[in-house]
Amino acid sequence: MLTSFFAKSKPINITLVLVLLSGFFIAANFQNWFLDFEILKFFKILGVFLALMLALFLLNFIAKKNDLTQRSAYKILLFSVFCASFFPLLQDYNVIISATLILLALRRIISLKSQITVEKKIFDAAFWICIASLFYFWSILFLLIVLGGIIIYSPRPKNWLIPITSAVCVYLIYCSIHLLIYDQFYLISDWYQPYNFDFSNYQSFKFLTPISIILALTLWSLVYYFSIIQKAGVSLRPSLHLILFTLIIGVSVGIFAPSKNGSELIFFFIPLSIIVSNYFDTGRDKIFREILLLILILMPFGVLFIQNK
């Protein structure tokens, strides 16, 4: 039932996913958004909410446009239940904005395969990632995806200089704004966030439960994803490899993240949603997929119950 319903990408499917993610976002931010009401804070949180909705649509667009998955609603459903399982993620406005900007960059990188306006796409991708790093420093690691795109699609010498140009442009623009507002230069020390290898927060039951389920799902889905890569056509295979590389970078961001509260996992959830979606699209054991999808949908509700005990 569930797999058949979400196997299609129709307005009703997308609407239900939007309602699910919206409900959990409102629940996570109800205190700040409504009870401690301030007009500026209200519009700030509203802007973050719209950014999260945009991230959902961007993920759906990227996967459909580049044939990374079948035309199902699994990817946006998975991304929603992953995010909804971590309230600190839904309360971290900087990480949501940063992840949305990373999706804008990923869209430009994967579109390099068309070989149209390659230089502009490389500049745009690096530009979005550098801006994302202003909100969440360790998202700067996604510049490696830009380099990966250059290696795969257009390894001409001049293209290697374009990300540096983007970074300089972002710094000059932001430094000018910072100087105008605060009357001082924006320094690297203001931008940098120290890494943290303390994972003790993950031992909490409210984090350990969803992380364990998601990690098991990741390992299970990767087996299918590798077989899909092997069977994919020559034109599609580089894009699938980039998604896999994005997953590795997402894990790296989580490892270096200064705060281990679940919010850092959003960068991991972006490529993971595409990879797991491929399993649900191609997996043969329908009963097992039904049970697994039901567990994933119930997961954020279970975490919510644990938090409120």
Annotate the secondary structure layout.
Layout (H helix, E strand, L loop, with lengths): L1 H5 L4 H25 L3 H27 L8 H11 L2 H5 L1 H18 L7 H18 L7 H11 L8 H21 L5 H4 L13 H27 L5 H20 L9 H17 L3 H22 L2
Helix pairs in contact: 2-3, 2-4, 3-4, 3-6, 4-13, 4-14, 6-7, 6-8, 7-8, 7-9, 8-12, 11-13, 11-14, 12-13
How would you describe the overall organization of this protein?
With 309 residues, the chain is mainly α. The model has no long low-confidence stretch (mean pLDDT 92). Helices cover 75% and strands 0% of the residues. α6 packs antiparallel against α7 (118-135) and α8 (143-153) runs antiparallel to α12. It contains 14 helices and no strands.
Descriptive tags:
single chain, 309 residues, 14 helices, globular
Series of secondary-structure elements, N-terminal to C-terminal = HHHHHHHHHHHHHH
> How much is the average pLDDT?
92
Quantity of strands, as a count: 0
Ranges where pLDDT stays below 50 over 5 or more residues in a row are none
- How many DSSP helices? 14
Q: Ends: how far apart?
A: 31 Å
Shape: globular
- What fraction strand? under 5%
Structural class: mainly alpha
CA gyration radius, whole angstroms: 20 Å
